[in-house]
Amino acid sequence: MPTASIAPISTTSANRAIAFIGRSLILGSFSLLAVYGLYLRARLTESEDGATGGLIASITAVALAAVLLAVGLVKRPRLDSSLIIWATLFFVCSVGFPALSIVFLQVDPGIAGRLISEVIVCAAMFLCGYLILRLELASLTSIAMIVALSGIICGYFTLSDFLEVNTYIRRLEGFGAVNYVANVYAGCALCCLYLVAKALIRRNLAFAATAAAGAIFAALLVVLLGSRQAAAALVLTCGWFAFGALGPRVGGGMLVITLPVAVLSMLVLSQSVDTSILLQRFEPTAISNAVTVRAMVFSGALVGLEPTDLLIGRPDLYGALNVESTNPHNIIISALRHFGVFTALSLTFSLIHLFFKGCTLGSRSIDANALAFALLMFAVTIFYVMASGHITRSFHFFLFWGIAVAVIQTQSEVARKLDTRRQGSARPQFHRPRPL
Predict the structure, then answer these.
(1) Nearest one of 242, 176, 217, 186 to 396, comparing CA atoms
(2) For the chain, percent helix, then strand, then coil, each to nearest 5?
(3) What pTM was computed for the model?
(4) What is the DSSP annotation of 122-163?
(5) Least enclosed by CB within 10 Å: which of 364, 394, 419, 427?
(6) Lowest mean pLDDT among 48-57, 193-202, 301-310, 426-435
């Protein structure tokens, strides 16, 4: 009796299945990083659970960065960009100078070691954002989708906190790092706008309307959290992208819809919670006083430091690890105070160089919307780190720094190849005359 033979699974099919599973696991890990590193890290910071969200995000970032580095050893993407060189210099200084402070300034090795470990986590965040794009394991659209969807889901829990508390709704008990999470929601709104632009290009009006609703919801959360820097980031970056990428007609239409929805939502919430103190934060007098206080904090952060302290840095004065020390509320001043002048200079030049290179890429960009989104998303985090937060706890800053570098580097390489082809095609061709 003849027996049916089973055809062996081809090697190509097996490789595709393995690649699909691997990519799914990487995207799942990145989604976990987005949830706990961007949204729930802030929500759990001052609750009874302690830094659970931040701890999960840290472990996920280090593990995912290790996997991406292993994949990079196989694919070997180009890493010779000046953006990568300056970012690497910053991280090397951030690790090296705290180690030197143990020897020259007799800093407690335990504190310096903890600060170095937090810098390593930040470097892992940068690598996750950079390598996941450079290795083509995810597109910028899928990253925007993950960040936006995570924000909308986590926004439900944020809104439920507001409805459960009948007093001052900004500083909720168990809801710390309000400036951080508000800034992340401003980025969430920008991600939704980017998805609107992509949907309109594909003429998917249903998805565009859904993404626009998500942007309005995220913008409302920014207002409710009462963070002035996040509100400024929301208005400037989202306004720039809406009118630049979507056009005055669509951008203006969204503005006409957003304002009445925001006003109506505030009126409804005012019936159940006290919004008076929240609204007072946006008065001109309150904003002026906040600017004055921040200026005093900035200037006072470097008072009493010796030249050697400014050269090497003082890790023992880092506010996140020493409760008796003050927080400079500015990433450049914090880098100078805790990591030394060379670290601060490398960070400053890295930021200037990134925006200069991104802006000069301009008309040569193969995808202007993607380039604008990457730069503006990173700009959202700049608003936060220049006015608030601890340098090593600003996870979103390092994550979107890596994403911005990857987008600029990739588009620069493509633009360079296109320029070379154009020059080659424009070059005059000389032909030998046929012999008579």
Answers:
(1) 186
(2) 75, 0, 25
(3) 0.90
(4) HHHHHHHHHHHHHTTSS-HHHHHHHHHHHHHHHHHHHHHHHH
(5) 427
(6) 426-435
